Amino acid sequence: MTETESIAYDVVVIGGGPVGENVADRTRAAGLTTALVESELVGGECSYWACMPSKALLRPVIAQADARRLPGLAQTVRGPLDAPAVLARRDDYTSHWHDDGQVAWLEGTGADLYRGQGRLAGPRTVTVTGSDGTVTTLTARHAVAVSTGTRAQLPDLPGLGDVKPWTSREATSGKAAPDRLIVVGGGVVATEMATAWQALGSRVTLLVRGKGLLNRMEPFAGELVAEALTEAGVDIRTGTSVESVSRENGTVVAVTGTGDRIEAEEILFATGRVPHTDDLGLETVGLEPGSWLDVDDSLRVTGTDWLYAVGDVNHRALLTHQGKYQARIAGAAIAARAAGGTLAEEPWGAHAATADHHAVPQVVFTDPEAAAVGLSLAEAEQAGHRVRAVDVEFSSVAGAGLYGDGYKGRARMVVDLEEEILRGVTFVGPGVGELIHSATVAVAGRVPLGRLWHAVPSYPTLSEVWLRLLEAYRDN
């Protein structure tokens, strides 16, 4: 191991995914010298093993499903997807797992890139161990930002080590569809990957420990997605746990809690995420290795005045777009503190990630899509709000019928009866992902229902569901 001299920066960012990139971009824009440390590919999980490859896999699936709902077009798309072509397009969207473009963008910001394993080595100090064993020490005058994200959580099961299971990484980067695929889990990764690989030619068995899918959304979201997955050929088994796994002559055998043996070529565990902080040197600054990092609304780690944790690693909202939002807040807060300025830390202020508490949007790219922002009915009630749920079927919207024959979907808004604002909105149906930002604006902006009456939806579009929701609230 070769030591090098210490190099000083205003800010050091550990983790070069989209969150770390945005912290670096914002601090550089404020005139601060910034170093970014990355041990894998610049662009991170989202660019190579999550958002981009998964949506590239899913887009042809959704487009085909939409086409099959339109007479005149349906007859031309009777055959299966061209799986090699879909996978090739996926490869293009991951830049074939090369990060040259991302590195060029980063260099354009003026930040310095250090490749290697970054670890804290005391307050405001980061060591970077390169692949050749060379250790570089970086010091930060103002802030160190940890943006190392998460990794897949695997259960402690007998035989798992020999099976070499898929995680989200293998599921989004697979080179061919296995004949049979077992998916364990009922959340976003499980439902999206079941959707994609079933359409690409796999026979998918989805094993769900709980009662249904997408349990962090309104119950009808999981119900509608489960119905569609079943129609597509996915074998969904709820209330089912996996007790052991093995690989016998190349075939995975999963044994469930009821003693059933399920065989497949591959098995995907989509059973949660854990923070990427176990080898981060947290113990050198009095924090627990492997832990989530607790932060205030400026993303500064509790009990410190120099350490920030931005993105998934703080466990506030495990979503790329929310992490990038946090990065913009953190970058502004770091810059303001470095300049000796006063922070706007009040709710919805420039240095407060208030949306993490009240207006987190998410889209699940299944068929149908499920999109939600803010609180579900159950969450709003648990938070002590006096609320009412207003539901409408998309069949009441002219734009839904035009979108495709047999369009099936539902919308819900959760109304705060005391303030007459929206606490949450959920849409389920084909194409609803493009509706969710209007709901996000309404929730984050605390737009009064009386004002929403004057936000006229264009006819005939899916957005007319807003009028149906407001009418249902008025009339009942």
TrEMBL record:
<comment type="similarity">
    <text>Belongs to the class-I pyridine nucleotide-disulfide oxidoreductase family.</text>
</comment>
<dbReference type="GO" id="GO:0016152">
    <property type="term" value="F:mercury (II) reductase (NADP+) activity"/>
</dbReference>
<dbReference type="Pfam" id="PF07992">
    <property type="entry name" value="Pyr_redox_2"/>
</dbReference>
<feature type="domain" description="FAD/NAD(P)-binding">
    <location>
        <begin position="9"/>
        <end position="321"/>
    </location>
</feature>
<keyword id="KW-0560">Oxidoreductase</keyword>
<keyword id="KW-0274">FAD</keyword>
<keyword id="KW-0285">Flavoprotein</keyword>
<dbReference type="InterPro" id="IPR001100">
    <property type="entry name" value="Pyr_nuc-diS_OxRdtase"/>
</dbReference>
<dbReference type="InterPro" id="IPR004099">
    <property type="entry name" value="Pyr_nucl-diS_OxRdtase_dimer"/>
</dbReference>
<dbReference type="InterPro" id="IPR023753">
    <property type="entry name" value="FAD/NAD-binding_dom"/>
</dbReference>
<feature type="domain" description="Pyridine nucleotide-disulphide oxidoreductase dimerisation">
    <location>
        <begin position="360"/>
        <end position="466"/>
    </location>
</feature>
<dbReference type="InterPro" id="IPR016156">
    <property type="entry name" value="FAD/NAD-linked_Rdtase_dimer_sf"/>
</dbReference>
<protein>
    <submittedName>
        <fullName>Mercuric reductase</fullName>
        <ecNumber>1.16.1.1</ecNumber>
    </submittedName>
</protein>
<dbReference type="InterPro" id="IPR050151">
    <property type="entry name" value="Class-I_Pyr_Nuc-Dis_Oxidored"/>
</dbReference>
<dbReference type="Pfam" id="PF02852">
    <property type="entry name" value="Pyr_redox_dim"/>
</dbReference>
<dbReference type="InterPro" id="IPR036188">
    <property type="entry name" value="FAD/NAD-bd_sf"/>
</dbReference>
<keyword id="KW-0520">NAD</keyword>
